[in-house]
Amino acid sequence: MRANLPPAPPTYDAAYLSRALAALDQVIGQTVTKIEAVESVLLQSPDGSVYKVTVNNAGNLVTTAVPLGQSGSPPY
Fold first, then answer.
1. What is 6-67 written as a DSSP string?
2. How far are the Cα atoms of 32, 39, 40, 45, 75 from residue 36, in angstroms, in the given order?
3. pLDDT of 28-41, one tens digit each?
4. In 51, 60, 72, 75, which residue has its Cα 20 to 30 A from 14's Cα atom?
5. Cβ distance 56 to 40 under 8 Å?
6. pTM of whole model > 0.70?
7. Stronger pLDDT, 25 or 54, i.e. the higher one
8. HSE of 16 in the Cβ direction (CA atoms, 13 Å)?
9. CB of 66 within 8 A of CB of 74?
10. DSSP-assigned letter for residue 73
11. What is the pLDDT of residue 21?
């Protein structure tokens, strides 16, 4: 995946940022399909805790702590 962004201006420019984000959105929109989407991901924090991250129907991210060290299948 490659996005061709315009050269960055020397100072903050809202119009540039808008164009750059639109270009990224276009590239990402062409490359991510529903087939590639997953229901959840597990992330580990710096202290070693593990969290399941999902998204609800409103588009909000939801994190749930995942208990580790259990025998058998995990409850997630």
1. PPPPSS--HHHHHHHHHHHHHHHHHH--GGG--S-EEEE-TTS-EEEEEE-TTS-EEEEEE-
2. 6, 10, 12, 25, 24
3. 777 666 677 788 88
4. 60
5. no
6. no
7. 54
8. 9
9. yes
10. S
11. 87
